[in-house]
Amino acid sequence: MRKLILGLAITLDGYIEGPNGEYDWCFTDQDYSLNEFYERIDAMFIGRKSYETLQQYAESANGEGIPGMPPLTEYVFSTTMTSVKEGAILISEDSIAEARRIKNLPGKDIWLFGGASLTDALAKEGLVDELWLSVHPILLGSGKLLFREQESRTKLTLLESKTYETGLVSLRYRIEHD
């Protein structure tokens, strides 16, 4: 079965974006193991807001998405959208069942790109297998937190850690499902 990997940048105080949705604090001066990560995946789960942000970014960059990102099958999870770009797949009903079905398809691992609601829903169902957090050495003080209040503890096993000269620390954890 394919793994679902939540991979994202986070501040030391736990924020994934600033109070106005900004992510200008993210380091872009080097690869930070993204190309290595890209070799592991062939699909992306993405929520509506994150999808729209990614589309806006691509439009402002002459159609180019995230630099260096290979072509991925994009699964867009939304109950309000009626269409997505050509090549992307809209998941608007039975999202948990669809996520399970897609995880069972042959292929490489899947990047859970974003969407706080999507991440919460998939995590609560035990569908997220790994966390790959790029911890940036900054305290934002406010914004959107990665982790919301949970009903129970989640045990993690450290798979890998890397420290970069910039102070960024990359952490990979396996989520232990009971």
Description:
The structure is a single chain. The chain is α/β, with parallel strands linked by helices and 178 residues long. The chain has one domain (6-163): 3-Layer(aba) Sandwich (Dihydrofolate Reductase, subunit A), CATH 3.40.430. The chain is 21% helix and 33% strand. The protein has 4 helices and 10 strands, in the order ββαβαββαβαββββ. The protein has helices at residues 34-40, 48-60, 95-103, 116-124; strands at residues 4-11, 15-17, 41-47, 73-77, 89-91, 109-114, 130-136, 144-145, 155-163, 169-176. The strands form 2 sheets. The protein has an 8-stranded mixed sheet. The two termini are 17 Å apart.
Poorly predicted regions:
none
Number of domains: 1
CATH architecture, by name, is 3-Layer(aba) Sandwich
The CATH homologous superfamily corresponds to Dihydrofolate Reductase, subunit A
Major β-sheet strand ordering: 5-4-3-6-1-7-10-9
Could you tell me the number of beta strands?
A: 10
What gap, in angstroms, lies between the N and C termini?
Answer: 17 Å
CATH class: Alpha Beta
Helix count from the secondary structure assignment? 4
- Average pLDDT taken over every residue: 90
